[in-house]
Amino acid sequence: GNRPGSKPSAAEWPPLSFGRDTIWSNGCARAGGSSRPATPAGRPLVTSDLGALATTVAFFHALNRDGLRYCHWKSNLRLSWGLCGRTDLDLLVDPRHERRFCALRSTFPIVAAKAPAGKRYPSIEDYVGFDPATGKLFHLHVHYRLVLGEQFVKNYRIPLEEVLLDSEALYLGVRVPPPEIELLILSLRTLLKYRDRDAVKDTLLIRSPGLPAQVAAEIEWLAAQTSVERVQAIAERHLPEVAGIVEPFLAAMAAPRDGRRMLHLRHQARRALRQYQRAPRPVAVLRYVGESLRRRKRLRFGRPQRRMTVDGGAMIAFVGADGAGKTTLTRDLNDSLSSLLEVRRYYQGSKEPSSLSRWLYLTFRGGRRAHRAASRRLGEAHPVARALAAGRDTCLHAHYLSVGLDRYRRHRAGRREAANGAVVIFDRYPLNAALDGPQIRAAGGRNGLLARSEEALYRRF
User: Fold this and answer.
1) In 3-state terms, what secondary structure has residue 73?
2) Residue 425 forms beta bridges with which residues?
3) Residue-wise over 420-456: b if at least 16 C-beta within 10 A, else e?
4) Residue 110: helix, strand or coil by DSSP?
């Protein structure tokens, strides 16, 4: 019941049970108390209830087979959703294996994409994949450095890449880090993303908690697989600056909605990680405010809001007779693709005229009424009636030419956007007189100049 590429809501996630005998993770039962079953290298674990896309399974199988250093470094609680194309897949790849990764990626239906302004971060690349068997899209975030932090900014570059990439564990056929490292990074990400307004909400106990339910569920899931002592040991060994923060943060999870305590821990985390900042704190605040305003449609100015393919987009046209379902199909395709890609839809019929086309058509209707009235009173052969008929036809033919110009402008706009990497969908596309093509000659027009001008215009697109 979910369209391709749509992310699951918190209500869709199965309940997590951390019992001794069975652990449920995204609907997949695992016996023996281990929620991350190991599988032999290069052999993907696929279960019938997982519903993973064949392309994602084959892609990770190839990564494992070729020995590339990578791992799915965060949100492994929802890894099955990513394999199904329901949420992003976040891969950390060894920069020394970048060329090998790109060469392997190019053998799959996975294309490079560029995020819109405000959503681009250093050492992070976007890819959009297509699964031919199901028609679904999936999204890869490929990181070559560990860049994280507050929303819209990601102002910290944390030096834990080697620790993550040293992992050999497989979960659902994908390399994942040990739970204690993932929990350490998740704790830092959660603290750095905690906002002042979240603290106000938690202090006054208004609306939803400042810490999202899915984050709390992920922390619980990881905590069940390790211990605070192991997380503390990892922090002291690889990131000693935050060794004194992780344990109090995990303890604070037992007392939800303690806004003051969370603000204090966030302050400690920022101070401990100051040497890893990408920009000074005031600059990061300005970037956050600017991007949050832009995403609230106050400063967008028509800029793209989703990813665009690097090597150019595509133009897709639906043609057919009236009532064939073109508009329904273009809307469905737009909904399917726009979850991941920048999609622009243009109507190429005559029902959305420009002001000039609308004015010319109204003038034609007025001339038609005047001609009918004059013909009834004076007769068809009267010079006045004949002059009104000529004026009527000229207005109609000028209207047809203006509609052609409307279509041509939309066509040109679509070509520009497709060249920039967007997917452009045309509802109708001029083919001939019966299918939204030139109309003047088909309507018996005697004005050769207008007819030739219209036909020359349509030949251009």
Assistant:
1) coil
2) 316, 345
3) ebbbbbbbbbbeeeeebbbbbbeeebebeebbebbee
4) strand
Nearest-angstrom CA–CA distance, 224 and 18? 7
Distance of alpha carbon 447 from alpha carbon 461, whole angstroms: 23
pTM of the model: 0.79
Closest CA relative to residue 198, chosen from 251, 263, 249: 263
Q: Read off the DSSP letter of residue 145.
A: S
Identify which of 229, 224, 180 has the alpha carbon closest to the alpha carbon of residue 33.
224
346 contacts: CB under 8 Å, gap ≥ 6: 410, 411, 413, 414, 424, 425, 426, 427
Q: Is 94 helix (H, G, I), strand (E, B) or coil?
A: coil
Name residue 309's beta-bridge partners: 113
pLDDT tens across the length of the chain (461 residues):
334 444 444 444 333 332 222 222 333 333 333 445 444 333 334 333 467 999 999 999 999 999 999 999 999 999 999 999 999 999 999 999 999 999 999 999 999 999 887 788 889 999 999 999 999 999 999 999 999 998 889 999 999 999 999 988 999 999 999 999 999 999 999 999 999 999 999 888 888 888 888 999 999 999 999 999 999 999 999 999 999 999 999 988 877 788 899 999 999 999 999 999 999 999 999 988 888 887 776 555 556 678 899 888 999 999 988 889 999 999 999 998 988 899 999 999 888 899 999 999 999 999 999 999 999 999 989 999 999 999 999 999 999 999 999 999 999 999 999 999 999 999 999 988 888 899 998 888 766 889 999 999 999 98
Name the token pair of 295.
């995403």
Torsion over CA: 236, 242, 246, 252 (sign): positive
* Most distant CA pair in the chain, distance: 103
Letter for the amino acid at 366?
A: G
DSSP 130: E
